[in-house]
Amino acid sequence: MDPASCPLSQILTFLQLLTYTAAISSCYEGFGERSVFVHPLVKRFLKGVRRQRPVARSITPQWELPLVLHALRNPPFEPLSQISLKFLSLKTARLLALTSAKRVSDLCALSVSPSCLTIREDESLAVLRPNHAFILKIITSSFRSRVVTLDGFFLPPHKNEMEEDFHRLCPVRATSQFNSIQLYLYSANLQQGVRRTQQLFVHYREHSQGKPLTKQRLSHAITQAYVSAGREPPQNMRAHSTRAVSSSTALFNGMSVDDICAAASWASPCPFVCFYLRDTSP
């Protein structure tokens, strides 16, 4: 059959086996000016599918946020000036993911270009942007939140040990330290080409050092946090688990749904409620 113009009956027959709606919608020519999935018969069919096969998801977080935050304040993630590039990368990526609620693809697109990265000398503020060629998943004008602006967390001078301890979770501090090391490596080894990309996060392993860091690597901080705490790491972690935990924790601590959606670039509360909401109540 012609995948671009086959009869509607063939589409419904196929959907009984595999619900590849997005793939079909991207190439099928539709009916006049209407998409194939706006057709009343297709809408009735998919509504019946959702009734017969409702999506089952757990509202329990895949991992414990307090455990991970405690691990990030202690070795091997501290002291920040002495740890390896691997643990500095993992810690910085995890703190940025938690405090920005951005997609993994958004974090991977962050750039060290002077036009994309600004950090105050006193580490009280950091402004991060993706490279200019990056295309957001949500491209409507109201939700093109490309800029990540972060305030310093418990800046010195500290009044007590608790404030000093919490300062170790400052995303601006971690980003500043990570960026300074990366720029130093780039300057000192320009001919060797340690940094082979302007992407903020780069590989730290010797055989691929300097290349863009993959999305999968960004989740390794959670595994390492569990290992350092003597706990069994969670299995089958999804790429968006951090987005779910951070946004849900914000909700249960009083942040409005509108502010959460704006930060995470969700056009409406529906994606948050349907796919990301977890029970992170105290």
Written overview of the protein:
The protein has 282 residues and is mainly alpha-helical. The chain has twelve helices and three strands, in the order ααααααβββαααααα. The chain has helices at 8-15, 21-27, 40-52, 65-72, 85-100, 104-108, 161-167, 171-188, 220-228, 241-252, 257-264, 269-276; strands at residues 117-119, 125-128, 148-151. Strands 1-2-3 form a three-stranded antiparallel sheet, covered by helices on one side. Strand 1 and strand 2 (125-128) form a beta hairpin. The longest helix is centred in the middle third of the chain and has 18 residues, at 171-188. It is elongated. The model has no long low-confidence stretch (mean pLDDT 84).
Order of helices and strands: HHHHHHEEEHHHHHH
What does the main sheet amount to? 3 strands, antiparallel
**In DSSP terms, counting alpha (H) and pi (I) runs of 4 or more, how many helices?**
12
| Helix content range | 40-55%
Keywords: DNA recombination, Signal
GO molecular function: DNA binding
Protein name: Tyr recombinase domain-containing protein
InterPro entries: DNA_brk_join_enz, Integrase-like_cat_sf, Integrase_catalytic
In short:
InterPro entries: DNA_brk_join_enz (IPR011010), Integrase-like_cat_sf (IPR013762), Integrase_catalytic (IPR002104). The chain has 282 residues and is mostly helical. The chain contains 12 helices and 3 strands, in the order H-H-H-H-H-H-E-E-E-H-H-H-H-H-H.
